[in-house]
Write a structure and sequence with these properties.
There is one protein chain. The protein is an alpha+beta fold and 461 residues long. The protein has 18 helices and ten strands. A five-stranded antiparallel β-sheet has the order 1-5-2-3-4. It has a three-stranded antiparallel β-sheet with strand order 8-9-10, with helices on one face. Helix 6 runs parallel beside helix 12. It is flat, with a radius of gyration of 25 Å.
Length: 461
């Protein structure tokens, strides 16, 4: 039986985690007004991602040409052969020595990741997961852990607004600032010193038993990340492509760093005064890759923030094993077996937003509505899957408790879902107050001794 519904009601993060934990094989079809994308899973790993409404061969061929791996003429010949033989484009390119197997594998992997990242821009649409056998070529496919995609999204959410403030359009053309060659020859330790200072500050706050005795490997890594010119490896790659003719679209493809990596490097070069905008390219609308990241809309996407609960997912997995298995992903969503897990993801998302609220304002939210007033969440984000407002309650002097009253709608009953967390303002070592610890996923031993809801075997309906 297929799992399907609205992305707004049951988020992509929840679906990804369930598929990965249960090691399912099948196709997750995602449809919105932006695109129609299919994500293929084999034993819980992503092995293929494709835009279902577009010719996959054309997309791959264009990417290979834009990244400089093949020429436009080689692509034309390969497509002619494909029309006659119906063989896959990748096989034709390799068989005719237009492209090495390693380059093809890396390009396919890059294409999978970039397409997968697109779906996390969506805050509306429809999903459908159908369990079926999925085959793939292991010689050309690098399976992707869904958690890798989700964790990268966290970094992108955090950094993209600052990048977007500098790179306002992908039609921009950049050139090197005059005299930059002299600066490139001059060694600079400023970025290295900054990273080292940050690292030492972190180490100084650790307990003695947590400190590493030999920091040489980490220091070598710091030195390796920043060149003598003060540029990161990614910034040096992008700087080599800035020539006063390429626009951002072309730099992204030629750098092979991906949209986020290339734009982050461009923003860094602008900050350091190595490049400047000299114009904008005008190209027909149909030639423009559909790249614009709508990251600001993601801040309102409750589904995406569930990725921040990696610890929650691991704790739930251990609890599932203790309880003798995981409820079937392919039962009906309406029967209530899946909704408690979506609720726990929602609680963990709100816990993160509560910490963000405290960092911004200097105090934790008193009620969950404070997150909406601060612009951190939408009103739809602060309700559980049963449509009831989630509560934020104080716990002792150093914590908060997030509570969903569960499917029965009554507080302090067996099906309540509770997640406790410390606020940054509480005394060090202070734990959440009585009544919350036994159901908290933050509390290692207590969570083991008293597994948190949902108890799908005994839960009231």
């Amino acid at each position: 039986m297929a799992l399907e519904g609205s992305i707004r009601d049951f988020g992509l993060t929840d679906i990804f985690q369930l598929i990965a934990i249960q090691k399912k094989s099948g196709v997750l079809e995602l449809t919105s007004d932006l695109d129609n994308i299919g994500i293929y899973f084999h034993d819980g790993q992503i092995v293929r991602v494709k835009a279902l409404k577009k010719d996959e061969s054309i997309l791959l061929g264009q990417l290979l040409v834009r990244s400089g791996r093949i020429t436009a003429e080689q692509l034309r010949k390969a497509l002619e052969i494909q029309r006659e033989t119906m063989q896959k484009l990748g096989y034709i390119l390799a068989a005719n020595n237009f492209l090495g197997e390693k380059d093809l594998r890396e390009t396919l992997h890059y294409q999978m990741l970039e397409t997968a990242y697109k779906v996390f821009r969506w805050n509306r649409g429809h999903y459908k997961f159908s369990q079926e056998v999925v085959t793939f070529d292991p010689a050309l496919t690098i399976p992707i852990d869904p958690e890798h995609v989700l964790m990268d999204g966290i970094r992108m959410i955090d950094e993209w607004p600052m990048i977007e403030a500098k790179i306002r359009t992908f039609d921009s053309v950049y050139a090197r600032v005059e005299g930059i060659e002299e600066r490139l020859k001059r060694p600079s330790r400023a970025p290295i010193d900054k990273v080292e200072a940050e690292f030492k500050a972190i180490v100084s706050r650790l307990e003695p038993k947590e400190k590493t005795e030999d920091l040489s490997e980490i220091e070598e890594e710091i030195e390796g990340r920043v060149s003598r010119s003060g540029l990161t490896e990614e910034e040096e790659i992008v700087l080599s492509l800035v020539d006063g003719r390429r626009d951002v679209h072309e730099i992204i493809d030629a750098s092979r760093l991906g949209e986020f990596g290339a734009c982050k490097a461009l923003a860094g070069l602008l900050d350091k005064g190595f490049i400047q905008e000299v114009g904008r390219k005008s190209r027909p609308q149909e030639e423009k890759p559909p790249r614009r990241f709508e990251w600001l809309s993601i801040f309102g996407n409750a589904a995406f923030y569930g990725v921040l609960g990696v610890g929650l997912a691991l704790a739930l997995l251990l609890w599932f094993v203790r309880m003798g298995g995981i409820p079937s992903l392919f039962g009906s969503v309406s029967d209530g077996t899946i909704l408690p897990y979506a609720a726990m993801n929602r609680l963990d998302m709100l816990r993160f937003l509560a910490e963000t609220h405290e960092l911004r304002t200097g105090r934790p939210p008193a009620v969950v509505e404070d997150l909406v007033k601060a612009g951190l969440a939408r009103r739809s984000d602060i309700v559980d899957p049963w449509g009831r407002t989630i509560r934020i309650e104080p716990a002792g002097t150093g914590g908060i408790v997030l509570r969903s009253v569960g499917p029965d709608g009554t507080a302090d009953t067996a099906d309540d879902l509770i997640l406790a967390g410390r606020t940054r303002m509480g005394p060090k070592g202070e734990e959440p107050g009585p009544g919350s610890a036994k159901q908290s996923l933050d509390k290692g031993d207590s969570a083991k001794d008293n597994p948190p809801p949902p108890n799908t075997g005994e839960r009231k309906q």
